[in-house]
Structure formats: structure tokens, C-alpha cells
Amino acid sequence: MNQDPKSDPVNDPDPSEAAGRALARPRRILVVDDEPAARVLANRVFSEAGFEVVTVQSGFECLAQFRKRPNWFDLILLDLSMPFMDGEETFRRLRALNPRAVVLLSTGFLAQAQERIDRMLAAGLAGSIRKPHRPDELLVRVHAILEDVKLSGAGCAASDMTAFV
């Protein structure tokens, strides 16, 4: 006897079990950096911390990944200084695709870029972090932003994250 597996009560997952799996899924992060060493380090740090990680080397690749799955990534770690399309332009385009995109800016030039960072914070940037990253500092920062997003329910960090700048 052939039964449609969709209507088979034995094979139907318990809705509460499915909801629990959805809540327990690994966090997903998109790392955007033109420096190979930075991508490798971020991939290792986040993977070892239980994240699903996708790394790309340009703003163009970031946008291509994001267009495929605009709601898939929990956070985007975005380098500010990249050739062709910098982090500010990439951020602007990400937010045009999904205004709820959670983006943490990564830069080694905080003082020189403060005006740009302020502009991006006003547009919904979740915060910024100085390069080079210490793995523990990076994880603490990302977890804090994700917790803030979870608590705010707004899809972008609700609190003023400039204290970390």
C-alpha cells in the first residue's frame, strides 16, 4: 500500500519537536573580507563556536550570497576597506535588500572612519569592531549583538552599540 508520506501520522514530525530544532539551529554568519587570512581566522573562530559560516572576499560576492538567502544569515561581519565596493556601499545595498539585516562592521581604521561609521550607525549598523580581532573579543561582540537583536525583536540592534567603537 502506497501512502503519501505527508499524510502518514507515523512519519509526521511532532510540531513541538520541529519548533525545538528550529530554535536550536546553529547561528549563521556571513564573513565579508578581502584579506584571506581574516576570512580563514573568522571561519575557524565561528565554526569552532558552533556557527554556520559562509565567507566571501568582496561586497559583490556578499550581495550575491545575500540575494540568494536574504533572511538566512543572523549576522554579517563586514570589512569596511575593500577594493571596488567598500563596506559602506555594501552595507547600504544590504539594507536596501533587507532593512533588518544585522551588520557588524570590521575595520582597522576606527578613528579615520568615525564619520562613516556614525553615518552607518544612524542607518542601522549594529556596531563596529577594530581589527585585528582577538577571537574571544569577536565572539563576545557577536553574541552580544545577536542577543540584543533577539531581545529587541526588531531585526537590528536596539541599543546604542557605539560604546564598543
What does the model show?
The chain has 165 residues and is α/β, with parallel strands linked by helices. It has one domain: 3-Layer(aba) Sandwich (Rossmann fold). It contains 6 helices and 5 strands. Strands 2-1-3-4-5 form a 5-stranded parallel beta sheet, sandwiched between helices. Strand 4, helix 5 and strand 5 form a beta-alpha-beta unit. Helix 3 runs parallel beside helix 4. The longest helix is centred in the last third of the chain and has 18 residues. The chain is globular, with a radius of gyration of 18 Å.
Beta-strand segment tally: 5
Going by CATH, the homologous superfamily would be Response regulator
How much helical structure, as a percent, in the residues?
A: 40-55%
Estimated structural class: alpha/beta
Number of structural units classed as domains:
1
What is the N-to-C succession of helices and strands? HEHEHEHEHEH
Rg, rounded, reads 18 Å
CATH architecture: 3-Layer(aba) Sandwich
Biggest β-sheet description: 5 strands, parallel
Question: How does the overall form come out from the CA principal axes?
Answer: globular
